[in-house]
Amino acid sequence: MSAAWVAPLVVLSMAAGFLGGLLGDRVVPDDGRRADAGLPSVPAPAAQVDRAPGSVAGIAAGVLPSVVSLEVTTSDGASSGSGFVLRQDGYVLTNNHVVAGAADGSLVVQFADGAELPGTVVGATGDYDLAVVKVDATGLTPLALGDSDEVVVGDPVVAIGAPLGLVGTVTTGIISALNRPVVAGGDDDGTAYINAIQTDAAINPGNSGGPLVNARGEVVGINSAIAQLPGRLTGVGSIGLGFAIPSNQARRTAEQLIETGRATYPVIGVLLDPEYSGEGVRVYEQNPRDTSAVTKDGPADRAGIRLGDVILAIDGRPVTASEELIVAIRAREVGDTIVLRVRTGDTERDVRVRLAEGRASPG
C-alpha cells in the first residue's frame, strides 16, 4: 500500500475513534453492554479452510508458489512483468519483452514468499517473445507444462501474475478461441509471430510472462499480449481479449534457449507481397531489390513454388493474410512436412513442403 493511501486511512481512523468516544453515551447501555442488533452470530473460522483441488482457490493455491515477478532496471527506468519456475534448479520462463534491456541494467526475480534474487537471461528470442532467466537457487517447485494441443474453446483457465505490479493476482475465464494470429513487438525486440490462445481471463500490463493454467493447474499458455481498441495510441487494460503463447511452443523454445542460448523457427523460404489483397497470400511477382522472393534451393523452391504463386491454405486451413501463414508455419517444428494449396495462374495444386531451419533473432 502506498503512502498516499496510508495517510488518509490513518486520519480517518483517528477521526472515527474520536467520534466514537463522543457518541459512546448514546449507544452503550448504562451497564456497559453494547446494544444487541439482533444479527445472528458467525462461528469463528477454522484455522485452515479447505478448497477442492479443482476449484479456482484450489488451483491458485497450487500454482501461486511457483509464480514470480521480474523487475528490470535500466538507465531509462524500471519495468516489471511476470514469469514462473520452469525447473527446480533455478530456471524461470517469461516473455522476451519483459526482460528486454536487462543486459544493460539489473534484473531481479521476486518469489511468492518475498525472497528476491538477481537473475541472468540465459537465452531469449524476439521471434517467439520468450526468454529463460536463471537464478542461483535449487529446490524450487516448477509448474508442469500441459499439452496446449488438447485445449478446446470453452475450457476454464486461470491467469496468474503481477498486473500493474500487484503480485499474486489471480483472474479466471475460459479459452475464447484458438489459432489466433498475433503479431507483436518489433524494432530492437524483434517481431513475434504467435499462433495464440485467446482468453477472456483478465490480463493487464504486468501479466506478461505469467502462466495461463487449466483446471489441473498445468500451464497451457504464457500470457503475452492484450488487444487494443482501434484508434487508441496508448495501451489499455483488459477488454476481455488476451493472448497467450501455447505451452507446446514454449516448451520447444525454452529447451533450445537453455541448451544453446538461441532459438530457431521453421521457414519455407518465400517473401510474401504485403500489397496483395486477393484470395490467399501471394509470393512477390518480381524479386525485391537485392534479394530473392523464393530462396534458391529452399523448401518452397524444391516444392515448385514460383514468383507470383498464391498460397491459399496450409494443411487444409485457409489463409487470408501473410501473418496467418507465418504463425501457422512457426507453430510447427523444423523438419515437419506441411501441405500447401497453391495457385499458379488458373491452376490449383497441393504441394508438400518440408520445413527448413530459420535462425531466430536474439532478444
Q: What distinguishing features does this structure have?
A:
363 residues, alpha+beta, Thrombin, subunit H, Pdz3 Domain, 3 domains, 6-stranded antiparallel β-barrel, 6-stranded antiparallel beta barrel, 6 helices, 18% helix, elongated, disordered N terminus
Descriptive notes:
The structure is a single chain. The chain is α+β, with helices and mostly antiparallel strands. It is built from 6 helices and 19 strands. Strands 1-2-3-6-5-4 form a 6-stranded antiparallel barrel. The chain has a 6-stranded antiparallel β-barrel with strand order 7-8-9-12-11-10. Strands 14, 15, 16, 17 and 18 form a 5-stranded antiparallel β-sheet that branches. Strand 4 (106-110) and strand 5 form a beta hairpin. Mean pLDDT is 86; it is low at 1-28. It comes from Cellulomonas dongxiuzhuiae. InterPro entries: Chloro_Bact_Ser_Proteases, PDZ, PDZ_sf, Peptidase_S1_PA, Peptidase_S1C.
Question: What's a quick, concise take on this entry?
Answer:
The chain is of the alpha+beta class and 363 residues long. The protein is built from six helices and 19 strands. Strands 1-2-3-6-5-4 form a six-stranded antiparallel β-barrel.
